[in-house]
Amino acid sequence: MLEAIRERTKGWLAKVILGLITIPFALFGIDQYLQGAGSNVPIAKIDGDAITVQEFGVALQNLRNRLQSEGQTDLTILDRPELRQSVLDKLINDKLLFAEVKRANFNISDAQLSQYITSMPEFSRDGKFSEEVYYQLLTQNRMTLKDFEESIRQDLKAQQAREGFASLAYIPNGLVDQTLKVELQEREVSIAEIKTADYLSQVAVTPEQVKEYYEKNKDRFKTPEQVELEFVLMSANTLIPTMKVTDEEIQRFYNDNADKFQGDEERRASHILIGFGLSPTPAAKEEARQKAQQVLEEVRKNSDQFTELAKKYSQDPGSAQNGGDLGMFGRGVMVKAFDDAVFSMKPGAISELVESEFGYHIIKLTEISGEAQSLASVAPQIRGELLYQKALAKYTENAENFSNLVYEQSASLEPAAKAFDLQIQKTPLMSREDVARVFKSDKMRDLVFSEDVLKDGRNTEALEVSPNSLMAARVINHKPSAPRSFEEVQAGIEEFLRLEAAAKIAIEKGQAALADLRQGKAVDSIDWIPPVVVDRKNAQGLTDLTMNNAFKVNVDKLPAYTGVADANKGFLLIKVSAVSSSGLDEESERQAGKVELQAALAAEYVDAYLKALRARNKVTVNQSLLQSGATN
Q1: Which helix (H) or strand (E) holds 369?
Q2: 152 Cβ contact partners less than 8 Å away, ≥ 6 residues apart
Q3: Is the pTM of this model over 0.70?
Q4: Which long-range contacts (CB under 8 A, 24 or more apart) does 524-527 make?
Q5: Is 28 in the same domain as 148?
Q6: Domain range spanning residue 536?
Q7: Dist CA 612 CA 105 (whole Å)
Q8: Domain check: are 476 and 491 in the same one?
Q9: Tens-place pLDDT, residues 204-245
Q10: 180-192, pLDDT tens digit by residue?
Protein backbone atom coordinates (compact mmCIF):
# COMPACT_ATOMS: atom_id res chain seq x y z
CA MET A 1 0.00 0.00 0.00
CA LEU A 2 2.69 2.48 1.00
CA GLU A 3 4.74 1.58 -2.04
CA ALA A 4 1.73 2.37 -4.20
CA ILE A 5 1.33 5.68 -2.46
CA ARG A 6 4.92 6.62 -3.13
CA GLU A 7 4.71 5.59 -6.77
CA ARG A 8 1.54 7.55 -7.38
CA THR A 9 2.78 10.65 -5.67
CA LYS A 10 5.52 10.85 -8.28
CA GLY A 11 2.86 11.57 -10.87
CA TRP A 12 -0.51 13.26 -11.07
CA LEU A 13 -1.62 12.26 -7.58
CA ALA A 14 1.14 14.45 -6.19
CA LYS A 15 -0.81 17.49 -7.34
CA VAL A 16 -3.99 16.22 -5.68
CA ILE A 17 -2.82 14.50 -2.52
CA LEU A 18 0.46 16.14 -1.63
CA GLY A 19 -1.12 19.55 -2.14
CA LEU A 20 -3.58 18.61 0.58
CA ILE A 21 -1.45 16.32 2.73
CA THR A 22 1.87 17.09 4.28
CA ILE A 23 3.28 15.55 7.40
CA PRO A 24 2.16 18.44 9.59
CA PHE A 25 5.61 19.21 10.88
CA ALA A 26 7.66 18.02 7.88
CA LEU A 27 10.63 18.96 10.01
CA PHE A 28 9.67 22.63 9.65
CA GLY A 29 9.58 23.94 13.20
CA ILE A 30 8.64 20.55 14.56
CA ASP A 31 9.47 21.75 18.05
CA GLN A 32 6.75 24.38 17.93
CA TYR A 33 4.22 21.64 18.50
CA LEU A 34 5.71 21.09 21.90
CA GLN A 35 6.34 24.66 22.97
CA GLY A 36 4.00 26.47 25.31
CA ALA A 37 3.60 29.69 23.35
CA GLY A 38 0.12 30.67 22.30
CA SER A 39 -3.35 30.30 23.66
CA ASN A 40 -5.68 27.38 24.26
CA VAL A 41 -8.67 29.45 23.21
CA PRO A 42 -10.55 27.51 20.50
CA ILE A 43 -10.64 29.14 17.09
CA ALA A 44 -12.85 26.31 15.79
CA LYS A 45 -14.81 23.45 17.32
CA ILE A 46 -15.60 20.09 15.70
CA ASP A 47 -18.22 18.31 17.80
CA GLY A 48 -16.34 17.61 21.05
CA ASP A 49 -12.90 18.46 19.63
CA ALA A 50 -11.29 21.88 19.22
CA ILE A 51 -8.60 23.68 17.24
CA THR A 52 -6.83 26.20 19.44
CA VAL A 53 -5.34 29.54 18.54
CA GLN A 54 -1.96 27.95 19.31
CA GLU A 55 -2.50 25.15 16.78
CA PHE A 56 -3.64 27.65 14.17
CA GLY A 57 -0.63 29.86 14.85
CA VAL A 58 1.72 26.89 14.46
CA ALA A 59 0.09 26.01 11.12
CA LEU A 60 0.58 29.59 9.88
CA GLN A 61 4.20 29.59 11.06
CA ASN A 62 4.87 26.26 9.33
CA LEU A 63 3.44 27.71 6.12
CA ARG A 64 5.63 30.79 6.55
CA ASN A 65 8.71 28.56 7.05
CA ARG A 66 7.86 26.53 3.98
CA LEU A 67 7.40 29.62 1.80
CA GLN A 68 10.70 31.02 3.03
CA SER A 69 12.48 27.72 2.36
CA GLU A 70 11.17 27.89 -1.19
CA GLY A 71 12.66 31.36 -1.64
CA GLN A 72 9.42 33.33 -1.22
CA THR A 73 10.21 36.83 0.05
CA ASP A 74 6.80 38.52 -0.08
CA LEU A 75 4.88 36.95 2.81
CA THR A 76 2.03 39.48 2.92
CA ILE A 77 -0.14 36.73 1.45
CA LEU A 78 -0.25 35.25 4.97
CA ASP A 79 -2.35 38.22 6.10
CA ARG A 80 -5.07 37.64 3.51
CA PRO A 81 -8.40 36.51 5.03
CA GLU A 82 -8.90 33.87 2.34
CA LEU A 83 -5.53 32.26 3.09
CA ARG A 84 -6.16 32.25 6.85
CA GLN A 85 -9.51 30.60 6.15
CA SER A 86 -7.89 27.97 3.94
CA VAL A 87 -5.31 27.14 6.63
CA LEU A 88 -8.07 26.70 9.20
CA ASP A 89 -10.12 24.61 6.76
CA LYS A 90 -7.10 22.33 6.33
CA LEU A 91 -6.86 21.86 10.11
CA ILE A 92 -10.60 21.17 10.34
CA ASN A 93 -10.43 18.64 7.49
CA ASP A 94 -7.51 16.90 9.17
CA LYS A 95 -9.45 16.60 12.44
CA LEU A 96 -12.48 15.23 10.61
CA LEU A 97 -10.38 12.82 8.59
CA PHE A 98 -8.45 11.51 11.60
CA ALA A 99 -11.72 10.84 13.41
CA GLU A 100 -13.14 9.10 10.34
CA VAL A 101 -10.17 6.77 9.77
CA LYS A 102 -10.27 5.88 13.45
CA ARG A 103 -13.98 5.08 13.23
CA ALA A 104 -13.47 3.05 10.06
CA ASN A 105 -10.51 1.14 11.56
CA PHE A 106 -7.94 2.13 8.94
CA ASN A 107 -4.62 0.48 9.69
CA ILE A 108 -0.94 1.06 8.95
CA SER A 109 1.25 -1.87 9.92
CA ASP A 110 4.60 -1.49 11.66
CA ALA A 111 6.31 -2.75 8.51
CA GLN A 112 4.59 -0.14 6.35
CA LEU A 113 5.41 2.58 8.85
CA SER A 114 9.06 1.53 8.99
CA GLN A 115 9.32 1.37 5.21
CA TYR A 116 7.87 4.86 4.86
CA ILE A 117 10.07 6.48 7.51
CA THR A 118 13.26 4.88 6.20
CA SER A 119 12.47 6.27 2.75
CA MET A 120 12.08 9.86 4.00
CA PRO A 121 14.93 11.97 2.57
CA GLU A 122 15.22 13.97 5.80
CA PHE A 123 16.76 10.94 7.49
CA SER A 124 19.16 9.88 4.76
CA ARG A 125 22.90 10.23 4.54
CA ASP A 126 24.79 9.36 1.38
CA GLY A 127 21.55 8.15 -0.14
CA LYS A 128 20.78 5.70 2.68
CA PHE A 129 18.66 5.85 5.81
CA SER A 130 20.80 6.87 8.80
CA GLU A 131 19.61 5.88 12.24
CA GLU A 132 21.92 8.49 13.70
CA VAL A 133 20.42 11.28 11.62
CA TYR A 134 16.95 10.01 12.54
CA TYR A 135 17.62 10.20 16.27
CA GLN A 136 19.52 13.48 15.96
CA LEU A 137 16.66 15.27 14.24
CA LEU A 138 14.07 13.99 16.70
CA THR A 139 16.29 14.94 19.63
CA GLN A 140 16.97 18.41 18.25
CA ASN A 141 13.24 18.98 17.84
CA ARG A 142 12.42 17.53 21.25
CA MET A 143 10.11 14.86 19.90
CA THR A 144 9.99 11.28 21.15
CA LEU A 145 10.07 8.27 18.86
CA LYS A 146 6.59 7.31 20.00
CA ASP A 147 5.07 10.73 19.28
CA PHE A 148 6.76 11.07 15.91
CA GLU A 149 5.87 7.61 14.66
CA GLU A 150 2.28 7.92 15.86
CA SER A 151 1.96 11.22 13.97
CA ILE A 152 3.30 9.60 10.79
CA ARG A 153 0.95 6.65 11.25
CA GLN A 154 -2.07 8.96 11.61
CA ASP A 155 -1.14 10.94 8.51
CA LEU A 156 -0.68 7.78 6.45
CA LYS A 157 -4.11 6.57 7.52
CA ALA A 158 -5.59 9.85 6.36
CA GLN A 159 -3.61 9.55 3.15
CA GLN A 160 -5.14 6.10 2.57
CA ALA A 161 -8.63 7.60 2.80
CA ARG A 162 -7.86 10.49 0.46
CA GLU A 163 -6.07 8.29 -2.03
CA GLY A 164 -9.00 5.89 -2.12
CA PHE A 165 -11.35 8.61 -3.33
CA ALA A 166 -8.81 10.23 -5.63
CA SER A 167 -8.16 6.91 -7.38
CA LEU A 168 -11.83 6.76 -8.44
CA ALA A 169 -11.24 9.61 -10.89
CA TYR A 170 -11.58 8.38 -14.46
CA ILE A 171 -12.19 10.25 -17.70
CA PRO A 172 -12.83 8.37 -20.99
CA ASN A 173 -10.51 9.21 -23.87
CA GLY A 174 -13.38 10.58 -25.92
CA LEU A 175 -14.31 13.04 -23.21
CA VAL A 176 -10.65 13.96 -22.79
CA ASP A 177 -10.34 14.82 -26.49
CA GLN A 178 -13.56 16.82 -26.45
CA THR A 179 -12.61 18.72 -23.31
CA LEU A 180 -9.10 19.50 -24.52
CA LYS A 181 -10.46 20.68 -27.85
CA VAL A 182 -12.64 23.21 -26.05
CA GLU A 183 -9.91 24.09 -23.54
CA LEU A 184 -7.33 24.82 -26.26
CA GLN A 185 -9.73 26.70 -28.50
CA GLU A 186 -8.73 30.17 -29.71
CA ARG A 187 -11.24 32.91 -30.51
CA GLU A 188 -10.84 36.17 -32.39
CA VAL A 189 -12.61 38.72 -30.24
CA SER A 190 -13.48 42.37 -30.58
CA ILE A 191 -15.47 44.56 -28.19
CA ALA A 192 -17.36 47.83 -28.27
CA GLU A 193 -18.53 49.82 -25.25
CA ILE A 194 -21.72 51.84 -25.11
CA LYS A 195 -20.75 54.10 -22.22
CA THR A 196 -23.02 55.58 -19.61
CA ALA A 197 -20.90 58.73 -19.57
CA ASP A 198 -21.82 59.46 -23.19
CA TYR A 199 -25.49 59.89 -22.22
CA LEU A 200 -25.14 62.00 -19.08
CA SER A 201 -25.73 65.18 -21.10
CA GLN A 202 -29.08 63.79 -22.24
CA VAL A 203 -30.34 63.32 -18.70
CA ALA A 204 -32.11 65.93 -16.59
CA VAL A 205 -33.03 65.32 -12.96
CA THR A 206 -35.57 67.65 -11.34
CA PRO A 207 -35.46 68.84 -7.73
CA GLU A 208 -38.76 67.04 -7.18
CA GLN A 209 -37.20 63.71 -8.22
CA VAL A 210 -34.28 64.27 -5.85
CA LYS A 211 -36.61 65.15 -2.96
CA GLU A 212 -38.85 62.17 -3.67
CA TYR A 213 -35.87 59.80 -3.66
CA TYR A 214 -34.69 61.25 -0.35
CA GLU A 215 -38.09 60.84 1.31
CA LYS A 216 -38.38 57.21 0.14
CA ASN A 217 -34.83 56.24 1.20
CA LYS A 218 -34.20 58.20 4.39
CA ASP A 219 -32.86 55.10 6.13
CA ARG A 220 -30.03 54.99 3.61
CA PHE A 221 -28.85 58.46 4.61
CA LYS A 222 -28.41 58.03 8.36
CA THR A 223 -25.20 58.92 10.14
CA PRO A 224 -23.96 55.82 11.98
CA GLU A 225 -24.11 55.48 15.74
CA GLN A 226 -20.85 56.81 17.20
CA VAL A 227 -18.99 56.77 20.50
CA GLU A 228 -16.11 58.73 21.93
CA LEU A 229 -13.87 56.57 24.10
CA GLU A 230 -11.21 56.82 26.69
CA PHE A 231 -9.00 53.76 27.06
CA VAL A 232 -5.89 52.36 28.71
CA LEU A 233 -3.50 49.96 27.03
CA MET A 234 -1.11 47.71 28.91
CA SER A 235 1.38 45.84 26.76
CA ALA A 236 4.72 44.14 27.08
CA ASN A 237 6.23 46.70 24.70
CA THR A 238 5.34 49.66 26.92
CA LEU A 239 7.07 47.97 29.86
CA ILE A 240 10.43 47.59 28.08
CA PRO A 241 11.78 51.06 29.10
CA THR A 242 11.26 50.18 32.78
CA MET A 243 13.33 46.97 32.58
CA LYS A 244 17.06 46.64 33.35
CA VAL A 245 19.60 44.07 32.15
CA THR A 246 23.08 43.57 33.66
CA ASP A 247 26.29 42.68 31.82
CA GLU A 248 26.37 39.39 33.75
CA GLU A 249 22.94 38.46 32.38
CA ILE A 250 24.10 39.23 28.84
CA GLN A 251 27.20 37.03 29.30
CA ARG A 252 25.08 34.18 30.68
CA PHE A 253 22.62 34.37 27.79
CA TYR A 254 25.51 34.38 25.31
CA ASN A 255 27.01 31.27 26.89
CA ASP A 256 23.69 29.44 27.16
CA ASN A 257 22.73 30.18 23.55
CA ALA A 258 26.05 29.82 21.78
CA ASP A 259 24.40 28.07 18.83
CA LYS A 260 22.49 31.28 18.03
CA PHE A 261 25.72 33.25 17.71
CA GLN A 262 27.89 30.81 15.78
CA GLY A 263 28.16 33.20 12.82
CA ASP A 264 29.72 31.34 9.93
CA GLU A 265 31.75 29.05 12.20
CA GLU A 266 31.62 25.38 11.25
CA ARG A 267 33.62 22.45 12.53
CA ARG A 268 34.62 19.15 11.04
CA ALA A 269 34.97 16.12 13.23
CA SER A 270 35.33 12.37 13.04
CA HIS A 271 34.02 9.96 15.64
CA ILE A 272 33.94 6.37 16.70
CA LEU A 273 30.60 5.24 18.10
CA ILE A 274 30.24 2.31 20.44
CA GLY A 275 26.50 1.91 20.75
CA PHE A 276 24.39 0.38 23.49
CA GLY A 277 21.04 0.27 21.64
CA LEU A 278 17.66 1.68 22.53
CA SER A 279 16.51 1.39 26.17
CA PRO A 280 19.73 -0.36 27.29
CA THR A 281 20.08 -2.20 30.56
CA PRO A 282 22.72 -0.95 33.01
CA ALA A 283 24.78 -4.03 32.18
CA ALA A 284 24.63 -3.30 28.44
CA LYS A 285 25.69 0.31 29.01
CA GLU A 286 28.58 -0.75 31.19
CA GLU A 287 29.73 -3.30 28.63
CA ALA A 288 29.63 -0.64 25.90
CA ARG A 289 31.50 1.85 28.12
CA GLN A 290 34.29 -0.64 28.85
CA LYS A 291 34.69 -1.43 25.16
CA ALA A 292 34.68 2.27 24.29
CA GLN A 293 37.33 2.91 26.95
CA GLN A 294 39.55 0.22 25.43
CA VAL A 295 39.14 1.74 21.98
CA LEU A 296 39.91 5.21 23.37
CA GLU A 297 43.18 3.97 24.86
CA GLU A 298 44.12 2.44 21.51
CA VAL A 299 43.22 5.69 19.72
CA ARG A 300 45.40 7.75 22.03
CA LYS A 301 48.35 5.46 21.40
CA ASN A 302 47.79 5.66 17.63
CA SER A 303 46.06 9.03 17.07
CA ASP A 304 47.39 9.22 13.53
CA GLN A 305 45.45 6.04 12.72
CA PHE A 306 42.04 7.41 13.79
CA THR A 307 40.56 6.80 10.31
CA GLU A 308 41.55 3.12 10.28
CA LEU A 309 40.38 2.61 13.86
CA ALA A 310 37.02 4.20 13.09
CA LYS A 311 36.53 1.83 10.15
CA LYS A 312 37.43 -1.05 12.44
CA TYR A 313 35.45 -0.20 15.58
CA SER A 314 32.75 2.42 14.88
CA GLN A 315 29.16 1.20 14.93
CA ASP A 316 27.78 4.24 13.09
CA PRO A 317 26.92 2.83 9.65
CA GLY A 318 26.71 6.30 8.15
CA SER A 319 30.26 7.41 8.93
CA ALA A 320 32.33 4.32 9.77
CA GLN A 321 33.15 3.56 6.14
CA ASN A 322 34.46 7.13 5.82
CA GLY A 323 36.78 6.77 8.75
CA GLY A 324 34.27 8.36 11.10
CA ASP A 325 34.21 11.64 9.15
CA LEU A 326 31.02 13.65 9.76
CA GLY A 327 31.85 16.53 7.45
CA MET A 328 31.42 20.22 8.28
CA PHE A 329 28.56 21.24 10.58
CA GLY A 330 27.46 24.22 12.61
CA ARG A 331 26.66 24.45 16.29
CA GLY A 332 23.34 22.89 17.24
CA VAL A 333 23.28 20.32 14.44
CA MET A 334 24.45 17.41 16.58
CA VAL A 335 22.94 16.20 19.84
CA LYS A 336 23.86 18.45 22.76
CA ALA A 337 26.50 16.31 24.46
CA PHE A 338 28.30 15.74 21.15
CA ASP A 339 27.87 19.39 20.18
CA ASP A 340 29.24 20.71 23.49
CA ALA A 341 32.30 18.48 23.21
CA VAL A 342 33.14 19.38 19.60
CA PHE A 343 32.82 23.12 20.13
CA SER A 344 35.06 23.06 23.20
CA MET A 345 37.92 21.23 21.45
CA LYS A 346 40.98 22.39 19.54
CA PRO A 347 41.92 20.99 16.11
CA GLY A 348 43.62 17.60 16.37
CA ALA A 349 42.36 16.97 19.91
CA ILE A 350 40.81 13.65 20.96
CA SER A 351 37.89 13.82 23.38
CA GLU A 352 37.15 11.77 26.46
CA LEU A 353 34.20 9.39 26.11
CA VAL A 354 31.10 11.40 25.27
CA GLU A 355 27.81 9.73 26.15
CA SER A 356 24.67 10.36 24.12
CA GLU A 357 21.46 8.42 23.60
CA PHE A 358 23.21 6.57 20.76
CA GLY A 359 26.12 5.28 22.81
CA TYR A 360 29.68 6.40 23.60
CA HIS A 361 31.53 8.66 21.17
CA ILE A 362 35.26 9.16 20.74
CA ILE A 363 35.65 12.44 18.86
CA LYS A 364 38.52 13.95 16.93
CA LEU A 365 38.23 17.57 15.84
CA THR A 366 39.86 17.91 12.42
CA GLU A 367 39.01 21.38 11.12
CA ILE A 368 37.50 24.77 12.02
CA SER A 369 36.26 27.26 9.44
CA GLY A 370 34.74 30.71 9.93
CA GLU A 371 34.23 32.20 13.37
CA ALA A 372 31.47 32.77 15.88
CA GLN A 373 29.99 36.19 16.59
CA SER A 374 31.77 37.92 19.46
CA LEU A 375 29.93 38.91 22.62
CA ALA A 376 30.62 42.59 21.91
CA SER A 377 29.02 42.40 18.45
CA VAL A 378 25.81 40.77 19.68
CA ALA A 379 25.48 42.37 23.11
CA PRO A 380 22.93 44.99 21.94
CA GLN A 381 20.83 42.26 20.35
CA ILE A 382 20.99 40.17 23.53
CA ARG A 383 20.15 43.17 25.69
CA GLY A 384 17.04 43.82 23.59
CA GLU A 385 15.99 40.17 23.81
CA LEU A 386 16.41 40.10 27.59
CA LEU A 387 14.59 43.41 28.02
CA TYR A 388 11.64 42.03 26.09
CA GLN A 389 11.68 38.75 28.03
CA LYS A 390 11.58 40.64 31.31
CA ALA A 391 8.85 42.96 30.03
CA LEU A 392 6.84 39.96 28.88
CA ALA A 393 7.24 38.29 32.26
CA LYS A 394 6.14 41.51 34.02
CA TYR A 395 3.21 41.85 31.65
CA THR A 396 2.13 38.28 32.39
CA GLU A 397 2.45 38.97 36.12
CA ASN A 398 0.33 42.15 35.86
CA ALA A 399 -2.29 40.96 33.37
CA GLU A 400 -4.63 39.25 35.83
CA ASN A 401 -4.48 42.11 38.34
CA PHE A 402 -5.12 44.63 35.56
CA SER A 403 -8.15 42.65 34.37
CA ASN A 404 -9.52 42.37 37.89
CA LEU A 405 -9.04 46.07 38.62
CA VAL A 406 -10.87 47.40 35.53
CA TYR A 407 -13.72 45.01 36.39
CA GLU A 408 -13.91 45.73 40.11
CA GLN A 409 -13.50 49.52 39.69
CA SER A 410 -15.83 49.60 36.68
CA ALA A 411 -16.88 53.25 37.11
CA SER A 412 -13.49 54.63 36.05
CA LEU A 413 -10.21 53.73 34.38
CA GLU A 414 -8.26 55.94 36.79
CA PRO A 415 -7.53 53.19 39.40
CA ALA A 416 -6.04 50.88 36.76
CA ALA A 417 -4.09 53.72 35.14
CA LYS A 418 -2.56 54.77 38.47
CA ALA A 419 -1.85 51.23 39.65
CA PHE A 420 0.09 50.33 36.51
CA ASP A 421 1.38 53.79 35.55
CA LEU A 422 -0.63 53.91 32.34
CA GLN A 423 -1.86 56.86 30.33
CA ILE A 424 -5.58 57.32 29.74
CA GLN A 425 -6.03 58.08 26.04
CA LYS A 426 -9.04 59.45 24.16
CA THR A 427 -10.50 58.90 20.71
CA PRO A 428 -12.64 61.10 18.45
CA LEU A 429 -16.19 60.01 17.69
CA MET A 430 -16.04 56.59 16.00
CA SER A 431 -18.60 54.33 14.36
CA ARG A 432 -18.76 50.58 14.91
CA GLU A 433 -16.63 50.03 11.82
CA ASP A 434 -14.11 52.63 13.03
CA VAL A 435 -13.70 50.91 16.40
CA ALA A 436 -13.17 47.51 14.81
CA ARG A 437 -10.67 48.95 12.32
CA VAL A 438 -8.67 51.12 14.74
CA PHE A 439 -8.34 48.50 17.47
CA LYS A 440 -8.37 45.52 15.04
CA SER A 441 -10.94 43.81 17.22
CA ASP A 442 -14.55 42.97 16.48
CA LYS A 443 -14.98 42.01 20.11
CA MET A 444 -13.92 45.46 21.34
CA ARG A 445 -16.43 46.96 18.90
CA ASP A 446 -19.18 44.79 20.35
CA LEU A 447 -18.16 45.61 23.92
CA VAL A 448 -18.18 49.40 23.62
CA PHE A 449 -21.61 49.31 21.96
CA SER A 450 -23.02 46.87 24.53
CA GLU A 451 -25.68 47.95 27.01
CA ASP A 452 -23.43 47.63 30.09
CA VAL A 453 -20.80 49.90 28.62
CA LEU A 454 -22.93 52.24 26.53
CA LYS A 455 -25.84 52.89 28.85
CA ASP A 456 -24.56 51.95 32.31
CA GLY A 457 -21.22 53.74 31.87
CA ARG A 458 -19.05 50.79 32.91
CA ASN A 459 -15.56 49.88 31.80
CA THR A 460 -15.26 47.16 29.23
CA GLU A 461 -13.55 43.98 30.32
CA ALA A 462 -9.79 43.88 29.70
CA LEU A 463 -9.44 42.51 26.19
CA GLU A 464 -6.35 41.25 24.36
CA VAL A 465 -6.46 43.36 21.20
CA SER A 466 -3.08 42.13 19.97
CA PRO A 467 -0.50 39.63 21.28
CA ASN A 468 0.64 40.62 24.77
CA SER A 469 -1.50 43.77 24.77
CA LEU A 470 -4.52 44.26 27.04
CA MET A 471 -6.96 47.12 26.59
CA ALA A 472 -9.94 48.39 28.57
CA ALA A 473 -12.21 51.24 27.45
CA ARG A 474 -15.23 53.25 28.51
CA VAL A 475 -17.67 55.48 26.62
CA ILE A 476 -17.47 59.19 27.45
CA ASN A 477 -19.77 60.43 24.68
CA HIS A 478 -22.46 58.67 22.67
CA LYS A 479 -24.05 59.98 19.50
CA PRO A 480 -27.06 57.94 18.32
CA SER A 481 -27.67 57.28 14.67
CA ALA A 482 -29.65 60.10 13.01
CA PRO A 483 -30.91 60.96 9.52
CA ARG A 484 -28.72 63.31 7.51
CA SER A 485 -30.47 66.46 6.31
CA PHE A 486 -31.70 66.77 2.74
CA GLU A 487 -29.23 69.57 2.11
CA GLU A 488 -26.29 67.32 3.10
CA VAL A 489 -27.14 64.60 0.59
CA GLN A 490 -28.95 66.53 -2.16
CA ALA A 491 -25.97 66.79 -4.53
CA GLY A 492 -25.05 63.14 -4.11
CA ILE A 493 -28.60 61.98 -4.83
CA GLU A 494 -28.83 64.14 -7.93
CA GLU A 495 -25.56 62.69 -9.30
CA PHE A 496 -26.70 59.15 -8.53
CA LEU A 497 -30.03 59.61 -10.31
CA ARG A 498 -28.33 61.13 -13.36
CA LEU A 499 -25.91 58.22 -13.54
CA GLU A 500 -28.72 55.69 -13.10
CA ALA A 501 -30.81 57.29 -15.88
CA ALA A 502 -27.82 57.53 -18.26
CA ALA A 503 -26.91 53.88 -17.59
CA LYS A 504 -30.48 52.86 -18.43
CA ILE A 505 -30.24 54.64 -21.79
CA ALA A 506 -26.84 53.07 -22.53
CA ILE A 507 -28.13 49.59 -21.73
CA GLU A 508 -31.23 50.07 -23.88
CA LYS A 509 -29.03 51.28 -26.77
CA GLY A 510 -26.72 48.30 -26.29
CA GLN A 511 -29.51 45.75 -26.20
CA ALA A 512 -31.05 47.23 -29.34
CA ALA A 513 -27.68 47.15 -31.13
CA LEU A 514 -27.13 43.55 -30.06
CA ALA A 515 -30.52 42.52 -31.44
CA ASP A 516 -29.70 44.15 -34.79
CA LEU A 517 -26.28 42.53 -34.98
CA ARG A 518 -27.71 39.08 -34.31
CA GLN A 519 -30.15 39.63 -37.17
CA GLY A 520 -27.29 40.47 -39.51
CA LYS A 521 -28.05 44.18 -39.65
CA ALA A 522 -25.26 46.75 -39.82
CA VAL A 523 -24.93 49.14 -36.87
CA ASP A 524 -22.81 52.06 -38.00
CA SER A 525 -22.64 53.73 -34.60
CA ILE A 526 -20.64 50.85 -33.07
CA ASP A 527 -16.92 51.53 -32.64
CA TRP A 528 -15.23 48.11 -32.43
CA ILE A 529 -11.69 47.86 -31.12
CA PRO A 530 -9.20 45.94 -33.32
CA PRO A 531 -9.75 42.18 -32.83
CA VAL A 532 -7.36 40.06 -30.76
CA VAL A 533 -6.90 36.29 -30.72
CA VAL A 534 -7.31 34.88 -27.21
CA ASP A 535 -7.47 31.52 -25.49
CA ARG A 536 -8.63 30.67 -22.01
CA LYS A 537 -5.19 31.30 -20.51
CA ASN A 538 -4.17 34.33 -22.57
CA ALA A 539 -6.58 37.25 -22.38
CA GLN A 540 -4.43 39.68 -24.40
CA GLY A 541 -5.56 42.54 -22.16
CA LEU A 542 -9.29 41.77 -22.21
CA THR A 543 -11.16 41.95 -18.92
CA ASP A 544 -12.46 38.93 -17.02
CA LEU A 545 -16.02 40.03 -17.85
CA THR A 546 -15.18 40.02 -21.56
CA MET A 547 -13.37 36.67 -21.45
CA ASN A 548 -16.12 34.93 -19.50
CA ASN A 549 -18.76 36.00 -21.98
CA ALA A 550 -16.60 35.56 -25.10
CA PHE A 551 -16.19 31.85 -24.36
CA LYS A 552 -19.86 31.36 -23.47
CA VAL A 553 -21.29 32.64 -26.75
CA ASN A 554 -22.52 30.02 -29.24
CA VAL A 555 -20.14 30.06 -32.24
CA ASP A 556 -22.04 27.70 -34.55
CA LYS A 557 -22.59 30.76 -36.78
CA LEU A 558 -19.94 33.44 -37.19
CA PRO A 559 -19.64 36.23 -36.48
CA ALA A 560 -21.31 35.59 -33.16
CA TYR A 561 -22.40 38.34 -30.78
CA THR A 562 -23.20 38.68 -27.12
CA GLY A 563 -23.50 41.55 -24.69
CA VAL A 564 -23.68 42.29 -20.99
CA ALA A 565 -24.64 45.25 -18.81
CA ASP A 566 -21.51 46.46 -17.04
CA ALA A 567 -22.91 47.96 -13.81
CA ASN A 568 -23.14 51.76 -14.21
CA LYS A 569 -20.47 51.80 -16.90
CA GLY A 570 -22.98 50.96 -19.60
CA PHE A 571 -23.26 48.02 -22.00
CA LEU A 572 -20.47 45.83 -23.38
CA LEU A 573 -20.84 44.31 -26.86
CA ILE A 574 -18.66 41.30 -27.72
CA LYS A 575 -18.03 39.92 -31.21
CA VAL A 576 -16.40 36.56 -31.96
CA SER A 577 -15.37 36.56 -35.62
CA ALA A 578 -13.23 33.41 -35.87
CA VAL A 579 -12.63 30.17 -33.95
CA SER A 580 -9.70 27.78 -34.23
CA SER A 581 -8.10 25.03 -32.17
CA SER A 582 -4.36 24.54 -31.94
CA GLY A 583 -4.86 20.88 -31.10
CA LEU A 584 -2.21 18.67 -29.57
CA ASP A 585 1.02 18.21 -31.48
CA GLU A 586 2.22 15.14 -29.62
CA GLU A 587 0.63 12.13 -27.95
CA SER A 588 2.66 13.05 -24.87
CA GLU A 589 0.81 16.40 -24.75
CA ARG A 590 -2.51 14.61 -24.98
CA GLN A 591 -1.53 12.31 -22.14
CA ALA A 592 -0.33 15.26 -20.05
CA GLY A 593 -3.68 16.94 -20.64
CA LYS A 594 -5.48 13.79 -19.57
CA VAL A 595 -3.39 13.66 -16.40
CA GLU A 596 -4.34 17.25 -15.54
CA LEU A 597 -8.02 16.57 -16.13
CA GLN A 598 -7.95 13.45 -13.98
CA ALA A 599 -6.09 15.37 -11.28
CA ALA A 600 -8.80 18.03 -11.31
CA LEU A 601 -11.52 15.38 -11.12
CA ALA A 602 -9.67 13.58 -8.31
CA ALA A 603 -9.45 16.85 -6.40
CA GLU A 604 -13.21 17.27 -6.77
CA TYR A 605 -13.81 13.75 -5.42
CA VAL A 606 -11.58 14.36 -2.41
CA ASP A 607 -13.19 17.75 -1.81
CA ALA A 608 -16.67 16.23 -1.96
CA TYR A 609 -15.61 13.55 0.52
CA LEU A 610 -14.31 16.17 2.97
CA LYS A 611 -17.46 18.26 2.56
CA ALA A 612 -19.55 15.18 3.35
CA LEU A 613 -17.55 14.62 6.54
CA ARG A 614 -18.03 18.26 7.48
CA ALA A 615 -21.76 18.08 6.84
CA ARG A 616 -22.07 15.11 9.21
CA ASN A 617 -20.30 16.92 12.04
CA LYS A 618 -21.05 20.16 13.86
CA VAL A 619 -18.30 22.62 12.95
CA THR A 620 -18.24 26.15 14.36
CA VAL A 621 -15.61 28.82 13.63
CA ASN A 622 -14.85 31.95 15.62
CA GLN A 623 -14.63 34.28 12.61
CA SER A 624 -13.70 37.38 14.62
CA LEU A 625 -10.77 35.53 16.17
CA LEU A 626 -9.79 34.03 12.80
CA GLN A 627 -9.55 37.40 11.07
CA SER A 628 -8.30 39.44 14.03
CA GLY A 629 -4.64 38.80 13.25
CA ALA A 630 -3.98 37.91 16.89
CA THR A 631 -2.56 34.57 15.78
CA ASN A 632 0.17 36.14 13.64
Answers
A1: strand 359-369
A2: 23, 113, 116, 117
A3: no
A4: 526/192, 526/573, 527/192
A5: yes
A6: 185-197+487-581
A7: 19
A8: no
A9: 999 999 999 999 998 888 888 999 999 999 988 888 888 899
A10: 766 778 899 999 9
